[in-house]
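Reply to dn_fold:

You asked what the input looked like. This is it:
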Amino acid sequence: MLYTLIGIVHLVLFLIAAFEILQSGRPLMNKVLWLVVILLLPILGLVAYFLVGRK
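and this is what came back:
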């Protein structure tokens, strides 16, 4: 049950981050780079995006 909850929270945070990245006014290459980071480094990528990437 705990792993299911963690998975759901992770999915929701990923979708929020991906939506914000795609809707931002950043250049396309920056968007692609952030999406790759949050896909390849699921927890660390999301933390990095929410701390550093949301300027």
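Residues 27 and 33 are 10 Å apart (CA to CA).
Hope that clears it up.
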